[in-house]
Input
Amino acid sequence: MNCRECLAELSTASLREMQPDSAVMQHCATCADCASLTTRLRELEYNSASALNNLLPLTSPVGLAETSATLSRRRRVGRLVVTMSGIIGAIIIAVVASTMMVPQTIWNGITGSVSASELRTETITLTCLSPEQAGEIISPYVRSHGSVYYTPTAGLSVITVRGTAREIQRSRDLLADLEGDPGAACHNPADADVADMKRRADEDAARPELAGTDVRPTPAPMPAPRPKLAPTGH
Amino acid sequence: MRLNRFEKRKSREGGNDEAVVYRDRASYALDAQLASLAAAGDDSAFTTLVTRFQPAVFRWALIFAHDPDEAEDITQEVFVRAHRRLADYRSDGSLDAWLYRITRRTATQLRRTRRRRGRLVMSPAAQPQRDVYTTDPGARVDRQRAAEVIHHLFTGLPQRQREIFDLVDLQGLSPAEAAERTGMKPVSVRTNLFKARKTIRDGLLATHPAYGELSR
Output
């Protein structure tokens, strides 16, 4: 074994398990550098162990035991208090829930009212009806507690409905039915008026004159101009 | 109580291996008896228990702590927890291994707590107003020396490595015993031990003339 191998062994080997006839120790017997290094390593560990082992705590064991027992009992009581507080808190919450929230739920079930979390808000686009008309149409169907509809003031053709999913669906279907009907009065009101006027005029023309109606007499046809006669020789 | 490495060697040289075994068994039985009495509320049994184990717990705490004062705090906390949990102690295991586990957990938790409160500790209001060792200069010197040893040996070592190095190389446990006590695998213990030894010894080995060849 040379110094290099000895150092490699010393860097991680256990000095305690190193036997006198081991290769490292045999090398140390012939190499002063390695021998002194091994001795210093042993001294370092011995001194460290001694320093740590010989250092005694300053606190007296009797005082430490008394303090530990007192603190332990205090913590036990503290933990008991915390546990009891938790249990009492849970009981209070349960009582409050059973006396206030559960009856409210039951009451809601009886009256049909719904909680705010069940309400949704949706905006329905109108193509034909005005928002006021739409509001009048859906008003009887949006009746549950908290349900409402909004008509915009800025002239937009929409209506915003807040209500239960069922109410919103009902309103949507109703408005879609009315707006999809081609015969509905709201479809192109200007064109409808013109067609209506034409239809009435045709009907009037085909209808016989009625007494008292203001019918203008048809002017008589003008007689054809008489041709000039040529002068005769009389 | 467990003997340290050098005491063990002495007893081995004297051929007292069997005596050591019997002493260990007797001490285990005594510990178990004391623990059961203390768990039943016997304060004097608990005091005896503390008297027997305080130096050992303090010694273990020194490895986890930065200085002896912190080790004192850990020791106090360990015995508070031990008192509370004595009913959970099963007498078939050794009491010192049980206390060692509590020490380990306590030290880790206290260190975490202190790290969180680090800013408060740094404030001038948190500094002690008097020197607590003025009445005992000898103890002060010992503590300074221990603090230097801890600083010199363990600075730069992770907690696991310093723990394993102390258990095996300074306290004299075998790697298997250290693995059992720390709950680590034997392979991990050996790996940590080799790393710790290398870190600690490298500085000293560097003074050897042939070290340059080794490090190449």
In short: Chain B touches chain A through 56 residues (CB under 8 Å).
